[in-house]
């Protein structure tokens, strides 16, 4: 039995998925919420939100992610960063998943990855859980209903949390698996209910496919000046660095909060929604995002709530610090209708420095921008991956190593060339700790970060007086209106200045050691600005 709207010549049985129960094609949000509630997948919350717990896995499982080593990708994939799976192991996995699907109900969404109609990827997502289908309908871009009649997916994702992989048979490392087969244009996900695996699988696909078209895929948020898409800014950063919060500026138009492309025509969002962290979410500091937690269809993931009133607790991280909400982009009042922008005028690289060493904002030369993009220094925030319980310093090249199938120089060179061609100004912004390291200092005040970014984006910061940072060599503003001058000099915020110096020296050494792997692949101008 089947329900919904779909291309009649491209149903699941046409893709080899046979013997299924009821298949629900391209259900809209009210029906998906109704099915999720009826199937007891979660709880209906205030305003018609859907409250759900993902159980064992409350973050991504990067060690369970595999790329199938087929002949067409063997010499293109960055294998030091991507675990391989044999074609034979994948075929066995696929066959076992098809068998496991028999007799079960499934929900299907046909969606676009990418707002640019020329460059977008047509993706079909087959979900065992109705709320997973609701989630991915929010996060990817939704075709018009008439477009579904002729929709043919380029890639298909099958996600079955109830399926347990067999490491010995399938060539994976546990009973959880995320397997990408570029040759067969198929992604298989099993053994995890964490919905973020769906969206990051599509991001990984685009990170592989777009560079060959001259498009820079970016783990970043983006916005532009109201009424002026030419004044676009992008914000690189890993989870927990502030991409979503800082790009949701009420005085600018939001393009998107997490994944974008930079083509010859400008910037475009890969997604149609946002996936925001909700821990300590404040109606005062982040009113637009906070408001989505009471809007119909928003997926509230791994949050503690009052069983009677369904009131959310934004401070209780007993399930995970990685609690989130997923909602369509139009729930943000100043979101772009097209999700398109111009070539970036400002490039912001966000880092969450758990050492408490970096200043809140620094201006980078193009060579320094290349250096910090390849370095990708931040702190892995609690909960975003399994086993991470407190911030830990990490170098994640391109601010997105977990999602990069190819070597970082591929992306670094694309970024360098586009900065050179379009003349973007680059900034390094620290949203981490001040006054000491994690455990001693405090988190950088978001009001100060917003003030600094406003000054950077409106051009006034470039007119400030700058000093040269003695440890890292970049330019740091001495004073900025509305910001405590003491914050701009991290050493002055530490009670123990010698302890700061020791911490700074330690971080410089870490940068130098990490960057050794890129020295053979970079130009002399980047070598000249290397730290340490």
From TrEMBL:
Catalytic activity: oxaloacetate + ATP = phosphoenolpyruvate + ADP + CO2
Cofactor(s) needed by this chain: Mn(2+)
Binding residues for Mn(2+): 200, 219, 258
Compartment(s) of residence: Cytoplasm
Pathway: Carbohydrate biosynthesis; gluconeogenesis
Spans through the membrane: none
Enzyme class: lyase
GO molecular function term, any single one: metal ion binding
Binding site for ATP: 200, 219, 237-245, 286, 324, 449
Classification via InterPro entries: PEP_carboxykinase_ATP, PEP_carboxykinase_C, PEP_carboxykinase_N
GO BP field: gluconeogenesis
GO CC annotation terms, alphabetical: cytosol
Main location: cytoplasm
A Pfam match: PEPCK_ATP
EC number(s) reported in the record: 4.1.1.49
Protein role: Involved in the gluconeogenesis. Catalyzes the conversion of oxaloacetate (OAA) to phosphoenolpyruvate (PEP) through direct phosphoryl transfer between the nucleoside triphosphate and OAA.
PANTHER family in the record: PHOSPHOENOLPYRUVATE CARBOXYKINASE (ATP), PHOSPHOENOLPYRUVATE CARBOXYKINASE ATP
Protein name: Phosphoenolpyruvate carboxykinase (ATP)
Originating organism: Meridianimarinicoccus aquatilis
């Amino acid at each position: 039995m089947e329900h919904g709207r779909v291309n009649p010549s491209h149903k699941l049985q046409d893709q080899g998925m046979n013997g299924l129960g009821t298949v629900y094609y391209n259900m809209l949000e009210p029906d998906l919420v109704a099915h999720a509630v009826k199937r007891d997948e979660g709880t209906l919350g205030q305003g018609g939100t859907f409250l759900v717990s993902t159980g064992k896995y409350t973050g991504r499982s990067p060690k369970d992610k595999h790329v199938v080593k087929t002949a067409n990708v063997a010499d293109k994939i960055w294998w030091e960063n991507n675990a391989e799976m044999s074609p034979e192991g994948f075929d066995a996995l696929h066959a076992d998943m098809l068998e496991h699907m028999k007799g079960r109900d499934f929900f299907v969404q046909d969606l676009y990855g990418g707002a640019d109609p020329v460059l977008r990827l047509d993706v079909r997502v087959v979900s065992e859980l109705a709320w997973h289908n609701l989630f991915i309908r929010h996060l990817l871009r939704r075709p018009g209903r008439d477009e579904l009649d002729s929709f043919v997916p380029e890639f298909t994702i099958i996600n079955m949390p109830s399926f347990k992989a067999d490491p010995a048979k399938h060539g994976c490392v546990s009973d959880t698996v995320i397997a990408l087969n570029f040759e067969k244009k198929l992604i298989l996900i099993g053994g995890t209910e964490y919905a973020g695996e769906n969206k990051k699988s599509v991001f990984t696909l685009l990170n592989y496919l777009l560079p060959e078209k001259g498009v820079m895929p970016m783990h970043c948020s983006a916005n532009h000046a109201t009424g002026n898409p030419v004044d676009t800014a992008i914000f690189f950063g890993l989870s927990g660095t502030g991409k979503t919060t800082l790009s949701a500026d009420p005085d600018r138009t939001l393009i998107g909060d997490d994944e974008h492309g930079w083509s010859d025509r400008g910037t475009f969002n890969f997604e149609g929604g946002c996936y925001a962290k909700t821990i300590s979410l404040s109606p005062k500091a982040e009113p637009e995002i906070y408001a989505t937690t009471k809007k119909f269809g928003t997926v509230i993931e791994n949050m503690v709530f009052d069983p009677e009133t369904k009131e959310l607790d934004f401070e209780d991280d007993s399930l995970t610090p990685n609690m989130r909400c997923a909602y369509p982009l139009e729930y943000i009042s100043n979101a772009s209708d097209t999700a398109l922008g111009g070539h970036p005028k400002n490039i912001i690289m966000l880092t969450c420095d758990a050492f408490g060493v970096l200043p809140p904002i620094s201006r980078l030369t193009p060579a320094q921008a290349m250096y910090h993009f390849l370095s990708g220094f931040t702190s892995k925030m609690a909960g975003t991956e399994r086993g991470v319980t407190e911030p830990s310093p990490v170098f994640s090249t391109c601010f997105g190593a977990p999602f990069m199938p190819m070597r970082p120089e591929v992306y670094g060179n694309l970024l360098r060339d586009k900065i050179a061609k379009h003349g973007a100004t680059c900034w390094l912004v620290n949203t981490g700790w001040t006054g000491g390291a994690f455990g001693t200092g405090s988190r950088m005040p978001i009001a100060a970060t917003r003030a600094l970014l406003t000054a950077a984006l409106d051009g006034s910061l470039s007119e400030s007086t700058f000093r040269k940072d003695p440890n890292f060599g970049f330019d740091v503003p001495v004073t900025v209106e509305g910001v405590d001058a003491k914050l701009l000099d991290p050493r002055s915020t530490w009670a123990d200045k010698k302890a700061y110096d020791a911490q700074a020296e330690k971080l410089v050494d870490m940068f130098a050691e990490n960057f050794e792997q890129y020295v053979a692949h970079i130009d002399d101008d980047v070598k000249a600005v290397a730290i340490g």
